[in-house]
């Protein structure tokens, strides 16, 4: 699961905060919340839906669910292959 979170952070970093060398999933979620108008998706969304919401929700699930992302000694949530 760690490789997955690092891959997500690397991919999102290039788009959301490319000039922030210390960007994390948390800072990028903040950027998306504060500057939502800067972002779009290639997949069209209906006028009533938020095209960024799905990506933001997946990022938030990873950010909140993988508690050992930053090298903690122990996980507060079991990280299993099935969970990944």
Protein model, in words:
With 84 residues, the protein is mainly α. Helices cover 45% and strands 0% of the residues. Helix 1 runs parallel beside helix 2 and helix 2 runs antiparallel to helix 3.
Keyphrases for this structure?
3 helices; mainly alpha; 84 residues; single chain
Task: Determine Rg (CA atoms, Å).
Answer: 14 Å
Q: Structural class, from helix and strand content?
A: mainly alpha
Number of helices: 3
Alpha carbon gap, first and last residue: 6 Å
Taken as a percent bin, the fraction of beta residues is under 5%
Summary of the model, kept short:
The protein is an all-alpha fold and 84 residues long. The chain has 3 helices and no strands.
Summarize the SSE layout with pairings.
Layout lengths: L1 H15 L8 H10 L18 H13 L19
């Amino acid at each position: 699961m760690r490789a997955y979170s690092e891959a997500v952070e690397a991919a999102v970093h290039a788009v959301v905060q490319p000039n922030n060398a210390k960007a994390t999933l948390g800072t990028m979620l903040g950027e998306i919340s504060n500057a939502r108008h800067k972002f779009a998706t290639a997949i069209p969304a209906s006028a009533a839906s938020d095209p960024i919401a799905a990506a933001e929700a997946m990022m938030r699930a990873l950010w909140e669910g993988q508690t050992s992302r930053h090298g903690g000694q122990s996980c507060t949530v079991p990280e299993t292959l099935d969970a990944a």
